[in-house]
Amino acid sequence: MEIMSNNNREDRITLAHGSGGEESAELIRELFLPYLTNPYLEKGEDGAFIEARGDKVQTTDSFTVQPLIFSGGDIGKLVIAGLCNDLAVMGARPEFLTLTFILEEGLLYSDLHRFLSSMQKELKLNDAVVVAADTKVVPRNFGGGLYISGSALGTIIQKPYSAYNIEEDDEIIVSGPVGEHGAVVLMERNEFNMKSDLQSDCKSLWPVISKIIKQVDIVAMRDITRGGLATILNEMALQSGHEFFVQETQIPVRPEVLGFCEILGFHPYHMACEGNFIAIAKPGQAQLAVECLRSNGFPEAAQIGQVRAKLTKKRAPALLQTAANTVRSLEPLRGEMLPRIC
Amino acid sequence: MDSIDLIEPYRDPAIIKHYINKIIERRNLLNKSLSIMEVCGGHTHSILKYGIEKALSGYVNFLHGPGCPVCIVPKERIDHAIWLAKRKDVILITLGDVIRVPGSSSSLAKARAEGADVRFVYSPADAIEIARQNPTKTVVYFAIGFETTTPMTAWLVKKSYEENIQNLFFHVNHVLVAPAMQALVSDRDHKIEAFLGPSHVSVVAGADIYNIFSEQFSIPVVVGGFEPVDVLEAVLMIFDQFLEKKCAVEIQYKRAATFAPNSKSKILIDSVFEIAPQFRWRGLGNIPNSSLQLQKKYKKFNVFEKFKNELSDIAVEDDPGCLCPEILKGKKTPTDCVYFAKTCNPQNPVGACMVSTEGACSAYYQYGNYEQ
Question: pTM value?
Answer without folding.
Answer: 0.90
